Amino acid sequence: VKERKKGERVNPAHVMFDRFTQASTCKGTLKAFQELCDHLDLNPCEYRIFYHKLKSRLNYWKAKALWVKLDKRAGQKEYKKGRACANSKCLIIGAGPCGLRTAIELGFLGAKVVLLEKRDAFSRNNVLHLWPFSIQDLRGLGAKKFHGKFCAGAIDHISIRQLQLMLLKVALLLGIEIHVNVEFKGLIEPPEDQENERIGWRAEVHPRTHPVNELEFDVIIGADGRRNTLAGFRRKEFRGKLAIAITANFINRNTTAEAKVEEISGVAFIFNQKFFQDLREATGIDLENIVYYKDDTHYFVMTAKKQSLLEKGVILHDYADTEMLLSRANVDQEALLSYAREAADFSTNHQLPTLDFAINHYGQPDVAMFDFTCMYASENAALVRQRNGRQLLVSLVGDSLLEPFWPMGTGIARGFLAAMDSGWMVKSWAQGNTPLDVLAERESIYRLLPQTTPENISKNFSHYSVDPTTRYPNISLHFLRPNQVRHLIDTGDSGSEMCIEMENVVTSSTPKLTRNESIARSSKLLNWCQRQTEGYRKVSVTDLTMSWKSGMALCSLIHRYRPDLIDFDSLDERDQQKNNQLGFDVAEREFGISPCMTGKEMSQVSEPDKLSMVMYLSQFYEMFKDTVPPGAGGDCLPEITSDNMRKTSQAGHSEEVRKTFKG
């Protein structure tokens, strides 16, 4: 820190910049930013020149250290000095981490970006796990200039609130237009009379008098989480056995005693059976896993078993319907607080001196219990709407696109990857590529997203950019052909493919799939797996759990498509650990499908978790659904690669397979 010489006048702009970088609330950040702009006589709406004007008028060493970071990022060749998307007008719905990260990417590309957030507070204390590339990405955006403790030492996590604040500040500095207390209600189509009213696509927002109602856009991106207010995207649902999560935040007073308490990584604890047995015997609390991160708060997240919640009086009555089971009327809030506190105290070996709950934005103790039995993923990442000669590119990022499976800590990493992928798509759109070409490339890239792990993405983080080839090794940007995404163009013609598909679209107002429908979907996956493993020695697939325990079914599934990778005849069905580990290793190395556990853990569990297995096996289905196995109904394919997978998908041989798991 530089000391001020005695008698030296304080520069108000420097004070205002410090107030902005250190602001700890959303409203405080926006207010400090506006004060800084007013003082320097800057208009953030002049987005093309705003950042450069700000740099020239703020001669302050702390600001200059940040400019160095942002200039380096802005210098990436893909941005073309901020001119790659200079004529694009983009609307983003939601100021969560992924909406903000997408806005920043589009800002660097030179687009006009407007971001809407229906609230004016960042209040989520819950903590996110960061993959190594996410940490480097945020450091490159100047994270430590806004949050000095960011990922110090071995820390690899951050609270959602701190992450939002950090990204909000970067977005504002890049000239991104941010409106809080504004809610997106829907799209307004261009009028038919384009000769007299040259008006394109607009958004209807609340309040109706807000000026955003008058703006036109050629790109709109939904980043408002699971609720997703953008219509037109059909969602796939993965349903496992009942899974009840509890999150709890306790006040962190940053004492020496608190600093000494070790964090708990979920991966290490999931299969530590003795710990869970001791916890159950000592307290009656029965958990499947638990994670503890020390951040702004002491953050705990755990999966609790229903029976122990009933026995401890947290859930009052047992209902088959999950919504009724976890409804407010059926939960004793005081018992829930005690359950969470007792689990946190035991799991940290009673080392935290005080366990006082942090307070949430409702003024209540920050504890929540929710069901994550169902996981959703959008079937597609983007679509194009065409009306009266005007086109609109519509896309999703974040939880709207792909819900995270929280015990695996995938949410923010995959969210950031999708934000960069979206930037690449908008760049392609701005360059005048045809809608079908833009969509085919976007969907080719999206197919990889659910398979990403810290191990199978590129390790050269400093080279990461919007260009997907810098992040995904061996990616085929032309995996899908333009004629395979025709259904993603909505022309408004009642006879078009998309309108027929729209009957089954899941929108925010559509009820969730019933349990019977979910079971039907799982049975289609089961049906596909049975077809692929039929005829293999010692393999009889009758379900998605116990039939896979020996590892023989997994190895046969891989062998079906890549017989060069596994010597199936040499496998011993009794060596469950070895078989499973072989299958897991080959799938991760060759296909980028990360294992749901280790071979040893698979051999030791009494029954594999159905949700984990459905999510794992679905990745094989997604990868091979359009592929003809070697020797089946056509020429023998000695090696199935992305290229010949793409070629065979057009041959029509796999229509029967596609029918078994459609939707």
TrEMBL record:
Location in the cell reads: Cytoplasm, Cytoskeleton; Nucleus
Q: Which GO terms describe its cellular component?
A: cytoskeleton; nucleus
User: One GO molecular-function annotation for this sequence?
Assistant: FAD binding
Show the catalytic activity.
Answer: L-methionyl-[F-actin] + NADPH + O2 + H(+) = L-methionyl-(R)-S-oxide-[F-actin] + NADP(+) + H2O
EC number from the UniProt entry: 1.14.13.225
Write out the entry's keywords from A to Z.
Actin-binding, Cytoplasm, Cytoskeleton, FAD, Flavoprotein, LIM domain, Metal-binding, Monooxygenase, NADP, Nucleus, Oxidoreductase, Zinc
Matching Pfam families: CH, FAD_binding_3, Rossman_Mical
Quote the PANTHER family the UniProt record gives: [F-ACTIN]-MONOOXYGENASE MICAL3 (PTHR23167:SF51), CALPONIN HOMOLOGY DOMAIN-CONTAINING PROTEIN DDB_G0272472-RELATED (PTHR23167)
InterPro entries recorded: CH_dom (IPR001715), CH_dom_sf (IPR036872), F-actin_Monoox_Mical (IPR050540), FAD-bd (IPR002938), FAD/NAD-bd_sf (IPR036188), Rossman_Mical (IPR057494)
Task: Give the family per the record.
Answer: Belongs to the Mical family.
Domain Calponin-homology (CH), chain residue ranges per copy = 519-625
Q: What class of enzyme is it?
A: oxidoreductase
Required cofactors, per record? FAD
Any idea what this protein is called? F-actin monooxygenase
